[in-house]
Amino acid sequence: GESVGLHLPTLSVQEGDNSIINCAYSNSASDYFIWYKQESGKGPQFIIDIRSNMDKRQGQRVTVLLNKTVKHLSLQIAATQPGDSAVYFCAENMRETSGSRLTFGEGTQLTVNP
Amino acid sequence: GAGVSQSPSNKVTEKGKDVELRCDPISGHTALYWYRQSLGQGLEFLIYFQGNSAPDKSGLPSDRFSAERTGGSVSTLTIQRTQQEDSAVYLCASSLVAGAGELFFGEGSRLTVL
């Protein structure tokens, strides 16, 4: 079936470096993508979203890039801080057939070393 | 409350027993979602409520799972005759408007079936 998946299950970076978390999706009809951050023992927290009519969106210290040609999504975190350590999930939505149902990937564990 | 509230935060039960998990969404949010997260895994969609519309139950894994939402607010997820494979964190989320990407998650109910 169609799925959203992540290239790397773990990512370890030094504090202050930039982090890039990647996500591949297989459903070319998906029109909305979201990144969530989940800290240990907590529910996922919205970070940033992007619609399929865009290829880049920036937030505070975060940038999401969407490449529809290769069905690839990435989350860039600038000047990574220890508080950024968490599991990051990408999620997709295909509103026409899925309504408001989000399909989540398996997650990438980001560890920031001091 | 200010956020999505779930109870109990932890539940340990014996195989074959029924359990009820409760979710209080953010006041005014019309959409409510239940997801399941197994250890180290992504989020698996279970069910979605939107206002007075019929819920999207397409993610419920078996007929032992059911959910209701009373008065357009509080929701209860019921698992009958629990099995060990039901052990997971059950996450509830709400959003202001159907189709809005930012789902606000609760901290989850951790279910352990012995």
Walk me through the structure.
The complex is a heterodimer of chains A (114) and B (114). Chain A is built from one helix and eleven strands; from the N terminus they run βββββββββαββ. Chain A has one helix at residues 95-98, and strands at residues 4-5, 10-14, 19-25, 32-38, 45-51, 56-58, 62-67, 72-77, 86-93, 103-104, 108-113. In chain A, a hairpin with a 4-residue loop joins β7 and β8. The longest helix of chain A is centred in the C-terminal third of the chain and has 4 residues, at 95-98. Chain A is mainly β. In chain A, strands 2, 4, 5, 9, 10 and 11 form a six-stranded mixed sheet that branches. In chain A, strands 1-3-8-7-6 form a five-stranded antiparallel sheet, with no helix packed on it. By secondary structure, chain B is mostly beta strands. Chain B has strands at residues 5-7, 10-13, 19-24, 31-37, 43-50, 65-69, 75-79, 88-95, 104-105, 109-113. In chain B, a hairpin with a 5-residue loop joins β6 (65-69) and β7. Chains A and B meet through β5, β9 and β10 of A and β4, β5, β8 and β9 of B.
Class of secondary structure makeup of chain A: mainly beta
Largest sheet of chain B: 6 strands, mixed
Low-confidence residue ranges of chain A: none
The number of helical runs of chain B is 0
Q: Helix amount of chain A, in percent?
A: under 10%
The residue ranges of chain B in which pLDDT falls below 50 over 5 or more consecutive positions are none
Beta-strand fraction estimate of chain A: over 45%
- What overall form of chain A do the CA principal axes indicate? globular
- Give a count of the beta strands of chain A, DSSP E runs of length 2 or more: 11
Note the main sheet of chain A.
6 strands, mixed
So how many helices of chain A? 1
Cα distance, first to last residue of chain B?
33 Å
Order of helices and strands of chain B: EEEEEEEEEE
